[in-house]
Each structure stands twice: as structure tokens, then as C-alpha cells.
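Why do we care about 3D structure at all? Because function follows from shape, and shape follows, mostly, from sequence. That is the central idea of this module. The next example makes it concrete: a single protein chain, its amino acid sequence, and then its structure expressed as C-alpha cells.
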Amino acid sequence: MNRRHLLQAGLAAAAVSPLAAPALRAQGFDHTIRIIVPNAPGGTSDILARLLAPELTKALGQSVVVENRAGAAGNIGADAVAKSPPDGHSLLLMDVSTLAINPALFPRIPFDVQRDLAPVSMVIYAPYLLATKNALPVTDAASLAAYLKDKRNSINLANAGVGSMTHLTAVELGAHLGGDLLQVPYRGGAPALLAVASGEADMIINGATATQPYVVNGQMRGIAVSGPTRLTALPNVPTFKELGWPMDDAGTWQGILVQGNTPKPLIEKLDQELRKVVAQPAIATRIADLGGVPRTDGPDHFRTWLTQATQSFGDIVRKHNIKPE
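And the structure:
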């Protein structure tokens, strides 16, 4: 190629570079990536984020850090991602049931779930574990039902906040059992767990990922578990379905989302790398040890789930006239 042709090629590249640069940037990551967890440290989302962050750092070639932004039933952390630059560097990792519940729970929220957040992938499903403090005079589902039906008794139930999925599950269960479950909201699952372990609260329905260790270690008593099967570590604890209880498929559905206008290539890249990370034997084993099941079904399946869950969970909020604090 002669000098004239080289000059023409250089001028052509310069002419398209303003258009090409955004497309090139959309293919990769060039600065620190944040995983924003809209809950207190120690809960299921936080445990999962800190498990994934080191492996995503290796996979994406950038530091991945975890930030806890608790408050307003997850809306503070979710809003931070909804208003972040659409470059895939701010990830929202949370129990996405909350995103499906909040539009019915709050008259107004500062972002639109469908417009301002883009699903990347569900990551895991973990069932709920219903557990009681050791001092409560119940040992199984039958004695719990009998205790509740005695109108002299009531149970303080610690939950992760008004309108959380654990709250909706408890409301439906209380209506089914015909007993008095006094809902006591805490700022996330971790503080609620500590309340039951210390004897401050009587009972909890919470993600098995975070709750199972307390039961295995004898700090509280396991009564029942949601989901399709019993937990391997707690084979004597029956499922909600076995007991004929409602909300048998309730649980913590942990997923990752990004800002709603994030380019599709970046979303696909994140989805691809997440699948690889979750499939690593050490990560898969750790998730199983925590009571979770990998659910890397991709952005399209996630969006369908979110749309359907928004309708069904919203129906429960409206049926029980649940209002935020």
C-alpha cells in the first residue's frame, strides 16, 4: 500500500472513530465494577455477592467490589443502579421477588422496574426455611399449628421488612393456619436471624442459604422448608408441599440486573461469564452447601419470570391490604 492509500485509510478510520468508540466500549469493561446489594451485610444476597465477586474479577479483568445499600425495601440500592451510567459497571444483586412486590406495595417508587432495570440472569433459587427459637414450645409443624390455634398464644415473627417475600409468605401461612403471627420487621434477613437466635423473636421464615447454618448448629429449630425437595443437610424437615401449606414455591430468587439502557452486548457478556462462574465446581458446591440451586436461565427467561411474579405477588399484597411502614 503506498503513502496516499495509507493516508486515505487513516482519514477513513478517523471519520468513523466517534461512532465506533461506543460500540467498542460496549464489548468490555474498563474500570471497577460494583455489585450493589440493597440489604444489610450477612444476608443471602450479601453472601452470594461476596462469593461471586472474586471470580467475576478474574472473568471480567476488572476489580469487582460489593457495596451494601440497605433501606426502603431494597428501593435505595435498586434506584442507585437504575440511575447509574448504562455501561454494565453497576450490578444489582438482590432477591428479585422484592422488585416484583414493590410496584404494588408502594404508591410510587423512584424508578420503573421494567424500563430502568435490565435483567442479566437469575443466579440461584434457595427455598425458605421456617425456624423457631429453641425456647418456643413447638417441635414440628403439627405442634406449631396446635400452638397457634390456641388463642392464648401468639408468635412474634421476625421478617426482612414489611412487604418482603418472607412477609407475604408468613401472612399467607398465618391465614392458612388460623393463628396470630405478629409481624416484626427488621432491616434485612441477617438482623431478623439474629433476633430469633438470641430469643428476641419467636420465629422466622427466611432464605435457607442464610438460615440453615443456624439450624444445623442448634441455634434455632427447623420446622418446614419451601421448594420442591427437603434440604440435604436437614432431611427430617418436611416441605411446605408435604404439609399442605400455601406458598410452597416461595423462596429467595437471587438475580442480577443492570441499568435499563445497558447495551445488549454487555448484558450478554455478563450473562455468559456468570454462567461460567456459577458452573465452577467449587462455586456450585458452595451454593449447594448454602441450600441454593443454580438458576442461570439468561435475560429473556428472567424478564418473563419478573413480569409474571409482579402480577401474582401484587395480587397477594392487594388481597391482604399490605401497606409499607
